[in-house]
Amino acid sequence: MGILKDKVILITGGSSGIGKSTAQLVATEGAVVVIGDIQDKEGNETASEIVKNGHQASYLRMDVTDFESVKKVTEEVSSRHGRLDGAFNNAGIEGPTAKISDYENLDWKKVLDVNLTGVYNCIKCQIDEMQKQAGGGSIVSTSSAAGLIGIPGASGYNSAKHGVIGLSKTIALEYASQNIRVNAVCPGFIETPMLERVTDASIKIREQLIKMVPMKRVAKPSEIADAVAWLLSERSSYVTGVALPVDGGWIAQ
Description:
Layout: E1 8-12, H1 17-28, E2 32-37, H2 40-52, E3 56-61, H3 67-81, E4 86-89, H4 105-130, E5 137-142, H5 155-175, E6 180-187, H6 193-199, H7 203-211, H8 221-232, E7 243-246
Parallel strand pairs: 1-2, 1-4, 2-3, 4-5, 5-6, 6-7
């Protein structure tokens, strides 16, 4: 019996990378998975793969920057499945690499809209649904190691990811008495399409990044998924308001 047996879990940004890996894992742990994303082809393919492997999953188009889109999908999940036990707010973009003097205002707005306001929209709607049911729920949002330290050249991304942690801690305190737990996961360097874009497929840049990590490697998406599944499950029932680094020891230095 899986640690998430019969739990209804909504995953945003679940069509690739960490989100896809998490969707696959929580499904094998017994959850009913709903993937919310704007990448229709990839999202449907991921859901279909999970179903073919004998588990439960579906895809719904959802734009985290559009509050009404988020509200509609969240309510549909609860209506279709009878409840919403957990959510993984993972949709995000990296934005440009540039010093603040060269950072475009439109890029700032786009990164904050997706990475911070998007998480706010999701948590707000998820809380509304979880309050209607007995048993509470668990919400996990993707921050980053960059939400715990500063990284030059990424003012928008760093600010948004710091914001996700502050938001998560605040909501955790507001709803702890209702058994709604809210945590953030903080990945380091992960083998995802986002990392490939950031390094521009450069072996030299990749090697420089690996040298920064005490464990001397990047993580697999499944290693983040393991942490998220734990936070979503009752095995972390006394854990709330935490920003959990999964970074090979990077920020411990």
